[in-house]
Amino acid sequence: MKAIVLQRSQEAKIEFTEVPKPVCGSEEVLIRVKAAALNHRDEWSRKGLYPNLVEGTVLGSDCAGIVETVGASVNPVFLGKEVVVNPASNWGDNPLAQDKNFEILGMPRNGTFAEYLAVSVDRIHPKPRHLTWEEAAALPLAGLTAYRALVVQGQLKQREKVLVTGIGGGVAQFAMQFALALGANCYVSSSSEEKRQAALRLGASGAFDYGSIPWSVEALEKTGGMDLIIDGAAGDTLSQLMAVAKPGARLVFYGATRGNPSQLDMRKLFWNQLRLIGTTMGTDEDFSAMLSLVNSKQLTPVVDQVFPLADAEKAFDRMRAGDQFGKLVLIP
């Protein structure tokens, strides 16, 4: 079968090549992949920035497809089912944080950028019927991460003011959609005027240019401060986020693309009784709850662009440039 594998000896660091078609184990299903979506971890693997990289691994964490074969111990009722895959496994028994054995499809285990995928039957869920293959494939990893950040860790309440930073990326896009669906007033930030306008068209209450100085003053004046902030950048933007947070606000971080902050205003932190909260992916229960929200509210993921699997390098390059608004999807 054709697949996209990590091959750092190549100039592109990835390769469209032939790999063996997977054979499902007794408790697995074999899925014919209809669509798969990129995440930043795929590009980080390409850059060599992800831990424990294994050359030749099929990349990709997200997909939607059709169950083509079932293992010996799997109920044949799953044959022919249209499904999405939960890319996270081995969370463990503690709902507060993942176990040391937690892993995500696409590294070190072969992932979804291929014509077929074999996974444990407990990783599959019915594809939301209102979504196309491309939209369904866009959902799993970023949707799960956004849901846990917003609802589980962030404890979002109706009518609260939420700031989602870096709008345009997958997690940020879902965090905005989920916040709006749950009755919050959602604000966004981006250095791109085009992305800010796109977010406003989707229902954001306001959009701020974090490239302007000091954007936090404008945001505070216009909103009175945020109850909840969802951020994937961290770095020295942390001080600006703390500046727009109401006393008692929660700041939830799902990434640190800008690295560690050079300083932390501890007086503002303790005097305003702010809460800095980390999050990543989510439990199986979080995934089911996220799908339930998508189905009940008939939410539709934003797909930026669709590429043939053979043109995956173009999709990776678009992600590297940061030009996308929504998810980048591959079609085998």
Structure, described:
This protein is α/β, with parallel strands linked by helices. It folds into two domains: 2-139 and 301-331, Quinone Oxidoreductase, Chain A, domain 1 (Alpha-Beta Complex), CATH 3.90.180.10; 144-278, Rossmann fold, CATH 3.40.50.720. The protein has ten helices and 17 strands. Strands 3, 4, 5, 8, 9, 16 and 17 form a seven-stranded mixed sheet that branches. α7 links the parallel β13 and β14 (245-253). The protein starts with a strand and ends with a strand. The model has no long low-confidence stretch (mean pLDDT 95).
Unreliable parts: none
Q: How far is the N terminus from the C terminus?
A: 10 Å
Q: Radius of gyration, rounded?
A: 20 Å
What is the string of SSEs from the N terminus onward? EEEHEEEEEEHHEHEHEHEHEHEHEHE
How much helix is in the residues? 25-40%
CATH level-4 homologous superfamily of the largest domain: Medium-chain alcohol dehydrogenases, catalytic domain
Whole-number mean pLDDT: 95
Multimerization state: single chain
- Specify the CATH class of the largest domain: Alpha Beta
Q: Would you identify the CATH architecture of the largest domain?
A: Alpha-Beta Complex
